[in-house]
Design goal:
By secondary structure, this protein is an alpha+beta fold. It has one domain: Nuclear Transport Factor 2, Chain: A. 31% of the residues lie in helices and 48% in strands. The protein contains 3 helices and 6 strands; from the N terminus they run H-H-E-E-H-E-E-E-E. It has helices spanning 3-30, 33-38, 60-70; strands at 40-50, 53-58, 75-87, 91-102, 108-122, 125-138. A 6-stranded mixed beta sheet has the order 2-1-6-5-4-3. It starts with a helix and ends in a 9-residue tail after the last strand.
Length: 147
Amino acid sequence: MTMLDQSLAGLLAREAIRDLPNRYCDCVWRGDAAGIAQLFAVDAHFTAVSDKGEVTITGRDRLAEFFGGALDFKPRPYIHNHVLDSQDGRVARGRCYLDLRCATQDMGWIGAGYYEDDYVCTADGWKFQSRRFYALRMDAWPEALER
């Protein structure tokens, strides 16, 4: 592989990775829990961390179930400042920041936080291997995160 081919492959991978949080938000807006789950690797996990504690959901099937119930309060996420810290062709790590509004509360601002993500390149393309959400402020939570 030439240097140009390597550079192009790296840029295409970077774009695919940076697209994951955007697709995640798009699925949340559309209430597509199955679509959110498909953005994760089969054995991936999602963790939410707040002053209420920490909850982790593991496995694509359980993630689909969790997100199915977590979308009831109609969150409207705005992801920004996506940073990739490392990428080696098969795995990557990064983070992005969240401002959260709520459609059931007249699009009022209900939260803020950030995600720390680990990404993995699978046969189906780049996926979240883990997604860890740190809530800095959350005025409303899905019931599944209340425990």
